[in-house]
Specification:
Distance between the termini: 31 Å
Length: 233
């Protein structure tokens, strides 16, 4: 489900309509369910990763916030950072480093057959990993208090408008909005609608047409020998 598809338009209209009529508590639950449905539409198995990241950093944040012992606080921060970066590195950079090691050893005449993992890169993993990890860092720095609500924290991590392409929202900005009932303002709705349609225009009418020019360049294999070798037809 991509943002410029009819399927997403129907999904977004339904979610926005429910947001207007549901009370705060049920609105957050609906948004969490909708965010997980949106993410599962790519591959439901990816949910296991985002659940693990959410639980890891939620409980790490609680442990950091509930103790004054610096060694314990530092321990749970290190656990959070190492676990998140390990997951991200495994799925996103394992094949890259294996191929780079192969090329490096080949320079020295060393024969090495690297092992590559044949797995689809989980969509949005960089965005929600760094978003969740930044939360434990903010708690450790005492910039925010750890939230006691797992559903609210899960919504912060999985909030579907920011799940695939960011931005990486800080917890002090988004969690406070999730925790408060909030009020709808027509002026903000108009501005938000303008930004949505302006973004769609840039994606559909500008970016997609420019892609016809740049995609052949990105898909070509080096070495290059100047403009005359650019595979633009």
């Amino acid at each position: 489900m991509v943002f410029n598809s009819f399927e997403f338009a129907v999904f977004f209209a339904a979610v926005f309509g429910l947001c207007l009529i549901l009370p705060h508590k049920w609105r957050n639950r609906m948004l969490l369910g909708a965010s997980y449905y949106f993410y599962a539409s790519w591959d439901w198995r990816f949910l296991l990763l985002i659940w693990f990241t959410t639980l890891l950093d939620f409980f790490s944040g609680l442990r950091i916030d509930n103790t004054t012992e610096q060694n314990i606080r530092r321990l749970y921060l290190v656990i959070s950072i190492c676990a998140n970066l390990t997951i991200l590195g495994f799925f996103k950079y394992f094949n890259f480093f294996a191929d780079s090691l192969h090329d490096f050893l080949a320079v020295w005449g060393v024969s090495f057959n690297p092992f590559f993992i044949d797995v689809v890169l989980p969509v949005g993993i960089s965005f929600y990993t760094f978003k969740s990890m930044s939360y434990t860092l903010d708690v450790y720095r005492k910039e925010i208090r750890a939230t006691r609500s797992l559903p609210e924290y899960a919504l912060f991590v999985a909030f579907f408008p920011q799940l695939l392409a960011g931005p990486i929202e800080r917890a002090k900005d988004l969690l406070s909005q999730i925790g408060s009932p909030g009020k709808y303002d027509l002026e903000n709705i108009y501005q938000g609608a303008f930004l949505i349609f302006w973004g769609l225009f840039q994606k559909i009418f500008i970016a997609d047409h420019l892609a016809r020019i740049v995609d052949p360049v990105f898909s070509a294999h080096p070495p290059y020998n100047g403009l005359k070798d650019m595979p633009i037809k």
